Known about the structure:
B: two-stranded antiparallel ribbon
Amino acid sequence: xxxxxxxxxxxNGFGLAVVYILVALGLxxxxxxxxxxxxxxxxxYMLGGFVTYYAFAVFGVNYFLTLVLAVLVVGAAGVLAExxxxxxxxxxxxxxxxxxxxxxxxxxxxxxxxxGVLDKSVGSAVSGIVRVFGLIISRERLVVIVTACVLMxxxxxxxxxxxxxxxxxxxxxxxxxxxxxxxxxxxxxxxGFGVGCALAGAAGALLAPVFAxxxxxxxxxxxxxxxxxxxxxMGSLPGAxxxxxxxxxxxxxxxxxxxxAAVNMLGFLIVIAILLVRPRGLFGVA
Amino acid sequence: xxxxxxLSPALGFGLLAVAGVAxxxxxxxxxxxxxxxxxxxxxxxxxxxxxxxxxxxxxxxxISFMGIGAYASALLVTRAGWSFWASLAVAxxxxxxxxxxxxxxxxxxxxxxxxxxxxxxxEVLRLFFNNAFVDYLGGPSGLVEIPRPHxxxxxxxAIGFTSKxxxxxxxxxxxxxxxxVLIRLEYSRFGLxxxxxxxxxxxxxxxxxxxxxxxxxxxxxxxxxxxxxxxxFAHSHQVLHSSDFGLExxxxxxxxxVIGGAQSVWxxxxxxxxxxxxxxxxxxxxxxxxxxxxxVLMVVMLVFPEGLVSLPGRIAHALARRRRPxxxxxxxARVAP
Lengths: 286, 337
């Protein structure tokens, strides 16, 4: 087995992993701000996929404009969900779990009723392949990887350097102290929920041309996102990125040697192995 | 804990026992008997899940131990040639034995971390049932041809368990045992300690409670009852599939428990009964079934954060306040700004 093949396989794994990282970042951002595990997160991903389907495949809008549209629409949906439902559940992890489950079923059933249950093909936005140092990568995957990385960088800059981003991190650390410093908790948690959902929407829009869109498309990425945040540590953004890259490497290289079922199992065994050493994940704090 | 307001344990248990006897008197329809049997099985699962939650931990791998009991019993009967009755006693022990190492790992963390680590175990065990030892566990196509419970030999004949009615009675007996143990424990010193751990585990620790050992004991006992339900499931369905022990059925157990009210031992009972009956009615809605079910969950949880079991107390409180309008305002926390 040549080293090129290994790198190629890892690269294929990363292609999907970067998108799952976006989903995981949204999930972990929402958890850090509201102490809520949003089980309906995959449905916001699905929503992003359908925005792409209708804008790009049906109405023929430019693909990159479609991406922006998906981020805005899904982000607005997230803000709405927070204002109507989740703001009542801040800190009530168990109740929020049940409510987000209810929301999952409502959104999934609504999508089935309005869009139909069948898979819808979006079609490629870009075609062709690129060769870099003897590695082959499709242009489509390259667009996905680059866009996802740009979004991650944008999130980093937003959280690190803008006042709103700093307020968000302050609320994540200690909501009471943040409120005492004049941070508007309500606005921050609505925005944080919206940003988290927008990330999922972007991920759905990015993968829509790669896979088909369907009302149940959110189930797989959300499970992957859960694995990522278990490994990386709940509420930790760097943890989500590292966990995602690890998962991508394992899945990409694993598929060279074994069946996809065995790879899935291996992924979870690695999760357990990491939790044996670090029970709260790589970057988790008590 | 007789000081606690609400239903007395003996009365509540008696009501459940009588209701269980009433079902076969009211109907012999095999569909309704099936529904009632599944309800009793789910009650064993939700009562034991709530039992584990009484220490403040939501075990997302609870249904995996049902799976371990089910697969263990199926293998003991079909491969080792055991009698169903021997397997009924041993397979739940297998589930609780497996629970020891898993509990030791998972219980090092708490709260959302515990939720996620047990979720990981749920997936690992489901993938194990689906992919490991395919010759024995059946792989993706499932484990088939599991025999019905063998006739129970008694002096002067034997009781057969092939009819729906006989299976209902078997599940009823298992339910009575599980409910008696779990309700009794709730109203004992054991339940008090669990409540202390849930409210402030550090404080409980300083008062001499070995929190970790206690939580592990609760985890192992809860898994025993999940395994017991699993044995019944294996021999009544006669087919096992890994998806029977996946996230979806697990999530339903959590929904039953929390909608009913996880704070009270009667919560899972109320939740399981109400939601099982509700979903039978919602079936009429066909395409809208899941939509309405999801909306009902959201509304109930937002209106009754403590679960449906808090409804009588809230009505009583509202009536008392109507009679004496200032009754509520004497509580310090209510007046404080």
